[in-house]
Design a protein that fits this description.
The protein is of the alpha+beta class. Among the domains are: 154 residues, no CATH class; 85 residues, no CATH class. The protein contains 14 helices and 12 strands. It has a 4-stranded antiparallel β-sheet with strand order 9-10-11-12. Helix 5 packs across helix 10. The longest helix has 27 residues.
């Protein structure tokens, strides 16, 4: 049996950057770009706009807003029970993969404190209320409360009712994503088997973040690794090892740039998924900086910038300028490139 090749952390870093279009910006359209990177996490709606600006050659803000209005991009509670923007096709496939395990997860975390909750009654009431068209979150919460249902039940509704957040909310222009619609009335519903959802989820992850382990794929999705393991024997995948001997899986023809491939400076928004724990293997976020990017003092991560493929500092937009806060001294050559990219980002943010 041929030994599985070993990939260094640097090679894994370059693979992630290439697949996320952070080595070279995408020349594809908005929808295929969004699909190739596995969607975008959007607890803060502008994050999607900034994330696509960093990844696409000719991205314009109105392009994403229009795609949301035209229902080609869907914004809903999906992976890890967090808000994501994905293509309409990916929305239904992701739901097929995560719906059951996320319901089981929610039952488990609430059972000890709240016991059995009448999810079926809450679901029926919510669906009836949404049948008349989009409704604001505050109105939906008040309706559930008027029926004597505990406030905690709202947190589980996204696991039982396929709701999407619809424009004008959740866009650059109206950043609070609090206007809900039934997914089946907002976009054409497509029924998929759970197994089809699992396969699609695995392919999306490896295409956007691989090579990776089963656990990393499951962590990104927010479901148990055991739910994905049975699929692995049915997929034609490459197999590698990391420097610690852990097996990594990958798609047959996904890019694997050389470790020496130059990585340009890039700006990332708050909550960019490349920095989350599932992608630790790539060292895109040095562990000594993790507490500075994700901390308990703020409900979101800090916006960051990359130098040579790794987080080197944070940034903020103020007074028409992008202000940089390096986490360590920067090489002079990197500073020149950073300042130029920061001016381009400032023009984008200024409209």
């Amino acid at each position: 049996m041929t030994a599985e090749p070993t990939l260094t952390s640097r090679e894994l870093n370059r693979a992630l950057l290439a697949r996320q279009f952070l080595l070279e910006r995408s020349t594809l359209g908005l929808i295929p770009t969004l699909e190739r990177i596995g969607g975008l996490q959007t607890q803060y709606a502008p994050s999607a706009y900034i994330g696509l600006w960093s990844r696409m050659r000719n991205f314009r803000r109105e392009g994403l807003t229009t795609a949301l209005e035209q229902r080609r991009v869907i914004q809903g509670t999906l992976l890890r029970s967090t808000i994501h923007m994905v293509s309409a096709r990916d929305y239904w496939l992701f739901l097929a993969a995560i719906r059951q395990p996320r319901q089981e997860w929610w039952r488990r975390i609430t059972r000890h404190e709240f016991g059995h909750l009448d999810m079926e009654g809450a679901v029926a009431a919510l669906r009836e209320h949404l049948a008349g068209g989009p409704r604001r979150a505050d109105e939906l919460k008040a309706m559930l409360a008027a029926r004597g249902l505990p406030s905690v039940i709202w947190g589980g509704m996204a696991q039982w009712v396929d709701m999407v957040r619809v424009p004008p909310s959740g866009t650059w222009e109206q950043r609070r994503a609090d206007l809900y619609s039934l997914a089946e009335t907002w976009t054409r519903p497509t029924a998929y088997q759970e197994s089809a959802g699992h396969e699609h989820l695995i392919r999306r992850y490896l295409g956007g973040f691989g090579p990776a382990s089963i656990k990393e794929i499951a962590d990104w999705a927010g479901i148990p690794p055991a739910t994905l393991s049975p699929m692995m024997d049915h997929l034609a995948l490459r197999r590698f090892r990391d420097e610690n001997g852990k097996q990594l899986l990958d798609l047959p023809r996904a890019p694997l740039p050389a470790a020496a491939t130059p990585a340009p400076v890039r700006f990332l928004p708050t909550w960019d998924a490349t920095l989350l724990v599932h992608a630790r293997r790539t060292e895109i976020l040095p562990e000594r900086y993790r507490p500075l990017v994700f901390n308990t003092r703020t409900p979101h991560s800090a916006p960051t910038f990359l130098v040579d493929g790794a987080v080197a500092g944070t940034w903020r937009f103020e007074g028409g300028r992008v202000e940089l806060k390096p986490l360590a001294p920067l090489p002079a050559s990197a500073r020149v490139d950073l300042d130029a990219e920061a001016r381009r980002l400032a023009r984008f943010l200024s409209g």
